[in-house]
Amino acid sequence: MLFRGYSVGVYCMNYQPPYTITPVILNMVAEISESLGRLSVLEELAGQQENNLRLRRINRIRTIQGSLAIEGNTLSEDQITAILDGKPVIAPPREVQEARNAIKAYEQFSGWQATHKKDLLKAYQILMLGLVDDAGYYRNKGVGVMKGDKVVHMAPPADRVNSLMNDLFTWLKTSQEHALIASSVFHYEFEFIHPFSDGNGRMGRLWQTLILSQWKPIFKHIPVESMVFANQADYYKAIMQSTQQTDAVPFIEFMLNQILEACNTSFGKQSDQVSDHASDHVTDQVKALINVLTKQATMTASDLMEQLHLKHRPTFRKNYLNPALQNNWIAMTQPDKPQSPTQKYRLTNLGRKLVQ
Q1: Residues 238, 251: contact at Cβ < 8 Å?
Q2: What's the CA gap between 134 and 147, in Å, rounded?
Q3: What is the DSSP secondary structure assignment for residue 197, as one 8-state letter?
Q4: How far apart, in whole angstroms, are the C-alpha atoms of residue 161 and residue 148?
Q5: Which residues of 67-100 are buried (b: 16+ CB within 10 A; e: fewer)?
Q6: What is the structure's pLDDT at 146?
Q7: Residue 244 gets which letter from DSSP?
Q8: How far lies 127's CA from each of 80, 97, 111, 201, 318, in Å?
């Protein structure tokens, strides 16, 4: 007996989830990669400045609020911020518990491996603590996805869940697919299997983010879930269409579009932060020094002073050279011999990006 590519009663060693790679998918993967490149440059420029850390915290709160809101949680970003800060919040106790669990789960996020089943179960235990009786375990009964009073998806039988999830994790470990595609396929297959008694949506979104962040750590700070929440109806529609077609293409395309939008939104916010940072820290003197260094690969201090029409070395070092070195916009060619008479200076990658 066959069940969506799974042989019931027989462990399937080489299960291949049903999906097709379309030109639309390939184009979006390329666009996301390009957007991530721009965003990574801004992250590097921003470094660990206070505003950048604050933006990351805001994005984490948006991620939690968005993912919970899809499941009907009514807490606002301000309320989740208050819970994060340990302040009292007037709201339904279950919703507050959901938020506390999600905050704790994302705090432990970096310690999990996306290909380890035990970490998935551990994450589920944290995410659903005090909300379901079987937190940390796969379901032991049948479940269906309801739309109003209508069943729109009947999940596989409970006695098949463990082997289905084993197949899915085996595929994830061995797949050569691009992480953007593999994470979306895993997310869809996870929702199709519906391995838990409750909380499958938030777990699926959490695990896709984990897969992506282990490909590119920057995904820890990109609130994809908030984009999914903004397009919640289309999210469920994409799942249903993929199930009806026995092909995850609609869901993959939907998720890639949300990821692209989240990257572009984060780029805009980060760009504003970096612009403010640069205007505060890149003085006219440092700009002049960097502009001179764009004309030659390396230059001595004397050459730089000559090009800048400076004669007072202490002023040159205080206002031009040292600030550029401290911010890693330029570097010494002989960093282990800072006082070498043959010392020269060059633009760093960060300096080149700043020029661009």
Answers
A1: yes
A2: 24
A3: S
A4: 25
A5: bbbbeebebeeebbbbbbeeeeeebeeebbebbb
A6: 66
A7: H
A8: 15, 9, 15, 12, 53
Residue whose structure tokens are 């199709």: 192
Dihedral angle sign, alpha carbons of residues 51, 52, 54, 55: positive
CA distances from 137 to 117, 165, 197, 284 (A): 11, 12, 9, 60
What is the CATH topology of the domain spanning 2-277?
Fic-like fold (1.10.3290)
Q: What angle do CA 264, 225, 136 make, to 5 degrees?
A: 145
Tell me the C-alpha distance between 232 and 6, whole Å. Answer: 29
Residue with tokens 């009964």: 141
- Give the separation between CA 323 and CA 340, rounded to whole angstroms: 20
Euclidean distance between CA atoms 257 and 238, whole angstroms: 12
Determine the Cα–Cα distance for residues 211 and 183; give it in Å rounded to an integer: 6
Residue ranges per structural domain of the chain: 2-277, 282-355
Q: Which top CATH class is 282-355?
A: mainly alpha
| Residue entry with tokens 């807490």 | 75
Q: Which residue has the tokens 């403010």?
A: 276
CA distance linking residue 78 with residue 56, whole number of Å: 15
Using one digit for the tens of pLDDT, what is the confidence trace for 113-164? Answer: 999 999 999 999 999 999 999 999 999 998 877 666 776 678 899 999 999 9
Give the mean model confidence (pLDDT) for residues 257-263.
Answer: 89
